[in-house]
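> example.struct
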């Protein structure tokens, strides 16, 4: 904020255990605010750095994968394959089409080709399913192996459903917690602001010097309220209340509970802002894992290192995909990829 709270020398909160707890929360929030400000300042630079370092490699990789898809499609009509190898090649084409579909790294002409490929295989899959369904209706005795495979598929599906349910429940809890924190912050903002205004009230101050000082404090409170800075308002309320009482006597149980809840809500809100900001700068699975392991403590230098590591990995992958593409262009090379299971 463009203004700072001028705390008085006698504003000491270390006397009682409850004050120590509030002090820890205040210190934590001050650190969170500094960290968030640093990330906000670095955001554009990090984004520009990642765009410059990563996007050319990403664009070349997707172009290479597109060429793989086209080369394999042409190979189906140019080369002789066994039935099993034909199925493998078509599976690879479908996988590439799904990956490339809707990518902003391809030209519109390339995207149109990808969409045609995707629609073709989608229709082929639907036809195959209808054909198999009719075959199953006509068949009364199913082999035992098919039953086992069906059980395996169901078990895999069940596990996937369980994992998805867990992730959805976790996300719902986080959203509810964030909504509760935001509600608490919004309620507390108005409550604290009105309390400060009622204590200061410059119009009721007969002393001109004190009236001017209170007017400045109220102006600070107004700006903090407009900027939704609950943390500043809480610290200001502590100061004006202690100034009014003329002592450092302990807070009442009700006051302590309110301050604690309001500060915790502010801390939770700052954590969420930090997480959203970092997530907006994270693109790869490795970077996401690094963020999760850091538990919100990932620093700016670490993210730059992660970008460099991702660039290095991307270049290695690009080199491998280009080599794979060169083999796909020849019948013997494609046969070798199929033989070794590295298509």
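> example.seq
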């Amino acid at each position: 904020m463009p203004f700072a709270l001028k705390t008085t020398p006698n504003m000491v909160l270390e006397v009682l255990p409850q004050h120590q707890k509030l002090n820890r929360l205040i210190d934590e929030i001050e650190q969170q605010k500094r960290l968030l400000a640093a990330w906000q300042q670095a955001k554009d630079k990090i984004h520009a750095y990642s765009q410059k370092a990563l996007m050319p490699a990403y664009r070349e990789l997707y172009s290479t994968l597109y060429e793989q898809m086209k080369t394999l499609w042409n190979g189906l009509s140019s080369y002789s394959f066994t039935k099993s190898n034909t199925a493998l090649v078509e599976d690879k084409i479908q996988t590439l089409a799904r990956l490339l579909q809707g990518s902003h790294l391809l030209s519109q002409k390339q995207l149109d080709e990808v969409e045609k490929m995707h629609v073709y295989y989608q229709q082929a899959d639907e036809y195959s399913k209808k054909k198999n369904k009719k075959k199953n209706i006509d068949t009364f005795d199913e082999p035992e192996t098919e039953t086992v495979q069906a059980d395996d598929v169901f078990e895999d599906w069940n596990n996937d459903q369980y994992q998805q349910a867990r992730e959805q429940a976790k996300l719902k809890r986080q959203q509810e917690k964030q909504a509760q924190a935001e509600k608490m912050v919004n309620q507390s903002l108005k409550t604290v602001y009105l309390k400060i205004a009622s204590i200061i009230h410059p119009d009721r101050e007969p002393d001109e010097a004190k009236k001017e000082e209170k007017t400045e404090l109220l102006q600070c409170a107004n700006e903090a309220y407009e900027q939704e800075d609950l943390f500043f308002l809480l610290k200001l309320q502590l100061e004006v209340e202690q100034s009014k009482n003329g002592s450092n006597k302990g807070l009442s149980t009700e006051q302590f509970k309110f301050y604690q809840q309001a500060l915790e809500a502010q801390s939770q809100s700052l954590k969420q802002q930090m997480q959203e900001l970092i997530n907006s700068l994270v693109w790869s699975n490795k970077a996401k894992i690094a963020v999760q392991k850091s538990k919100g403590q990932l620093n700016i230098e670490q993210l730059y290192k992660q970008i460099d590591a991702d660039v290095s990995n991307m270049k290695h992958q690009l080199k491998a995909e280009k080599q794979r593409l060169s083999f796909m262009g020849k019948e013997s090379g494609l046969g070798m990829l199929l033989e070794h299971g590295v298509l």
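> remarks
Residues 1-15, 142-150 have pLDDT under 50 and may be disordered.
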